[in-house]
Structure formats: C-alpha cells, structure tokens
C-alpha cells in the first residue's frame, strides 16, 4: 500500500510528493524545496519514517517543480527522471531563476528519460506513466490503478487547469490530454495536483469550467 505525503513549498505554493510503501522504499516527485527550512522538512520526514529514497521524478520542469532537484540528488544519491521534451525547460531555469527570487538555484542534470507506458517501480509498488502535454511539452503523470490515484502535476486542478501561456504550452493540447488520458481513468480516481487541493476525476468531469463533459 502506497502512502502519499505532500508538502507545500515556496511562493508558488507548489506541492511536493513523497510516496512510500511498507518496504520503506520511497520516491520524491517534483521537489519544490529551496529554503533551508523547506529542505529540513523533507529530510526530517524521511528520517522520522526511516525511508530509503530510491528515485527522483519530475512531472515537468518549470521552476517551481525543480528547485529542490539538486538537493535531493546530492542528499540521497538518486537519479533524476523525466520526459525528454522537458530537458530544454530544465536547462532554461538557471537563466531566469534569479528573476523569480531564487539566486542560489543549482542546476541538476536529467539522468534518464521516461515515456508513456513506462512503469515506475519502488519497493513492492508500481506507477504507470501517462504522457499529458499541454501545460508543458513533455508533461507526464503517474497513475496507480489499484489504489486509484494519479500524481498529476499541473494538468488538472480542482476547478481549474494548468496554465498554457508559458513556452511550450498549448490550450487545445492540454484539454485533449485531460479528456483522453485523465478522464478515462475513472470517476473515483483521486488526482493529486501540483498546486492546491486534491480532487477526483468525476468531480472535474462534472463541474470543471474549462474541461467538464456534459453528463446529460
């Protein structure tokens, strides 16, 4: 059984997720920790629960989701995986990070690429990789069918969707990703979002003003 722990970091109010199971192996998804106090929260949680961090993953590589990449890689000696189309976005962060108030951002290299259909394994657990572009060119999400949850990044929010006005974003592509990849997962699937509260596929299908489907 996968346990999901979330942390809210930085002025972007970004959600960082740590997933672990009964083996105590764990993965970290989208570390937004930048300040020393934020890094201490993650390390304390990992130490208190005696977790063994085995993977670092990015759903996508906008600045708010990658601020802690270097710290996590160095602290826990893990490799970073994300989609290949996100590499230019990650490389660009260093050029503009100071403009957003992060002058001490340290770049981390991607170690391997992840594609749709790949399976992320840790402990006794598995996650399916979904390719869901639109907010960014290579955005991916992580779906667990037995426990019926999806770590969705900035694709679908409670009552909203990811912005599409950043480089590589496309509104029509994002809506297509939601309709073709998220909505078929099942109404009872919980979506853990990159910002804000979690939601369910069923709720967003019914009432999301950007992408709801007429259920009549």
UniProtKB/TrEMBL annotation:
SMART domains: Lactamase_B
Cofactor(s) required, per the database record: Zn(2+)
Residues of the Metallo-beta-lactamase domain: 13-195
InterPro entries linked to this entry: MBL_Glyoxalase_II, Metallo-B-lactamas, RibonucZ/Hydroxyglut_hydro
Signal peptide: none
Keywords: Hydrolase, Metal-binding, Zinc
UniProt cross-references to CDD domains, sorted A to Z: metallo-hydrolase-like_MBL-fold
Protein name (database record): MBL fold metallo-hydrolase
Natural source organism: Agaribacillus aureus
């Amino acid at each position: 059984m996968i346990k999901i722990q979330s942390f809210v970091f930085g002025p972007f109010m970004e959600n960082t997720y740590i997933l672990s199971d009964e083996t105590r192996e764990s993965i970290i998804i989208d570390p937004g920790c930048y300040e020393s106090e934020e890094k201490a929260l993650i390390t304390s949680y990992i130490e208190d629960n005696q977790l063994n961090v085995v993977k670092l993953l990015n759903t996508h590589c906008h600045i708010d989701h990658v601020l802690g990449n270097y710290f996590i890689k160095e602290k826990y000696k893990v490799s970073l995986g994300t989609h290949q189309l996100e590499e230019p976005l990650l490389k660009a962060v260093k050029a503009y990070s100071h403009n957003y108030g992060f002058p001490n951002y340290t770049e981390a290299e991607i170690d391997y690429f992840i594609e749709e259909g790949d399976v992320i394994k840790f402990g006794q657990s598995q996650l399916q990789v979904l390719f869901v572009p639109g907010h960014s060119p290579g955005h991916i999400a992580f779906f667990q069918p037995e426990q019926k949850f999806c770590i969705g990044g900035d694709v679908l929010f409670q009552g909203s969707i990811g912005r599409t006005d950043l480089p590589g974003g496309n509104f029509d592509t994002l809506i297509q990703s939601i309709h073709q990849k998220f909505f078929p997962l099942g109404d009872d699937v919980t979506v853990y979002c990159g910002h804000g509260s979690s939601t369910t596929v069923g709720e967003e299908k019914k009432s999301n003003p950007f992408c709801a489907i007429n259920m009549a």
